[in-house]
Write a structure and sequence with these properties.
By secondary structure, this protein is an alpha+beta fold. Helix content is 47%, strand content 16%. The protein has three domains: 92 residues, no CATH class; 93 residues, Orthogonal Bundle (Helix Hairpins), CATH 1.10.287; 146 residues, Heat Shock Protein 90 (2-Layer Sandwich), CATH 3.30.565.10. The radius of gyration is 44 Å and the shape is rod-shaped.
Length: 426
């Protein structure tokens, strides 16, 4: 299974979202390793007051010191370390002997009189045991950090929407260029949109010039092919005059060969007219065209069966469309004994199926069969096949109408199927 390439919108959005996410993660990491707001450093005088009074009301910034009694001096947390200098400073403020104060601090300071940062546990020896004043580290994801994460997530969502809108705005002109290039056909050049950013406009101008060169070269080759096919008719007429003097057996074979050559030239001229597409486009019901064609072929004794479907109104060239389905039906009868036609409407397109009861198509050769002068049957005998231009004409007419034609095998291997998909009029 061939993976469909991702749109340009995807990498642009991923780049924008990844950049924003990296910046936010770096900011959050900085915030995460800092103290939470409202829990600044505590003056050692306030800690001394709490140990002296046995309780401590909340501070002006919501700071709260926990007080409890401990029977021994085994208090303190794993991340806290002893600081005798700071213990002596607190003992002086109480005032008590230095050996009656023992503390553990997350961030011991060089200056013992400095305020206390981070968590700490300080005890004062009393008659009932150790009176401990403690401030613990807040949870890793406290309310303030969760709030920061929520705002970051909201910001990321907003940036993602902006990135999506910007990427769509940039990719839209590229998509229009691709659609215009797909619709360009010989005899029906497509106007290339020249809007969007400067680089896309330059690409559009380059595509416009390239389209003009390609269409001009293709037109020149088509005109040359038509001229050659037309001019060969004169020497064929002279040959037909001279072979009248041949014996009967030789004359019959020569007349048959010249007739075949004239038929090939006629089909070639028809092919050049079809791929140039100079007919008038009108609004028509394609189902009626197919049914009319099938009625004419049935009246001529051809095994054709039509299963009517919904209305298919499109803008098209009636004679070209009739020739398109006439070629497909003739191929189905020639190689598959009979033709079964049905159609449906899906996603604004008419889908027409022409089934036969023949050997089907080789999946490896289906694309080659649309090339001019390529036949599914290897001989050049017109009794068993045509000139090899039938499917080439079919594709040229389908593409002139902005459609698609594919060759496939019917389910179960019961014959071949040609699927024509044409856009309907809105």
């Amino acid at each position: 299974m061939i993976r469909r390439p991702a749109s340009i919108v995807v990498p642009m959005m991923l780049f924008a979202i990844t950049s924003a996410a990296v910046v936010m993660l770096v900011q959050f990491a900085v915030v995460f390793h800092g103290p939470p707001p409202g829990s600044g450093p505590l003056p050692i005088a306030r800690v001394a007051d709490a140990l002296r009074a046995g309780h401590a009301p909340p501070g002006p910034q919501g700071q709260k010191i926990s007080m409890y009694l401990s029977e021994n001096d085994r208090f303190g947390r794993s991340e806290e370390r002893a600081s005798p200098e700071r213990d002596r400073a607190i003992a002086i403020l109480l005032p008590v002997p230095a050996d009656q104060v023992r503390g553990y601090y997350e961030w011991p300071a060089n200056d013992p009189d400095q305020d206390i940062h981070g968590s700490f546990t300080v005890g004062r020896r009393t008659e009932k045991g150790w009176l401990v004043a403690s401030v613990s580290r807040g949870p890793a994801l406290g309310r303030w950090r969760i709030a920061i994460l929520q705002w970051m997530l909201l910001t990321l969502i907003i940036l993602s929407l902006l990135a999506w809108a910007a990427a769509r705005r940039i990719s839209r002109p590229i998509r229009r260029l691709a659609e215009a290039a797909t619709r360009a056909r010989l005899g029906a050049p497509e106007a290339i949109p020249l809007d969007g950013p400067r680089e896309i406009r330059e690409l559009g101008r380059a595509m416009e010039a390239m389209q003009a060169r390609i269409l001009q070269q293709a037109e020149n080759r088509t005109v040359m092919l038509a001229a050659m096919a037309h001019d060969l008719g004169t020497p064929l007429s002279r040959l037909a005059f001279w072979i009248e003097q041949l014996p009967d057996a030789a004359r019959e074979r020569a007349v048959a060969d010249i007739g075949e050559m004239r038929a090939m030239l006629s089909v070639t001229l028809q092919f050049t007219r079809d791929i140039r597409g100079h007919g008038d486009m009108v609004r028509l019901d394609l189902g009626s065209v197919i049914e009319s064609l099938a009625d004419d072929l049935s009246a001529a004794g051809k095994p054709v069966n039509v299963e009517p479907g919904p209305r298919m109104v499109l803008i098209g060239e009636p004679q070209a469309l009739r020739r398109l389905f006439g070629n497909l039906v003739e191929n189905a009868i020639r190689y598959g004994q009979r033709a079964e036609i049905r159609w449906s409407v899906r996603d604004g397109h008419g889908e027409i199926q022409i089934d036969d009861e023949g050997p089907g198509f080789d999946p490896a050769q289906t694309e080659n069969l649309f090339a001019p002068f390529v036949r599914g049957e290897s001989s050049r005998n017109r009794a068993t096949g045509g000139t090899g231009l039938g499917l080439a004409i079919v594709r040229s007419i389908v593409e002139l109408h902005g459609g698609l034609v594919t060759l496939e095998n019917r389910p179960g291997g019961a014959g071949g199927r040609v699927l024509v998909r044409l856009p309907l009029a809105t």
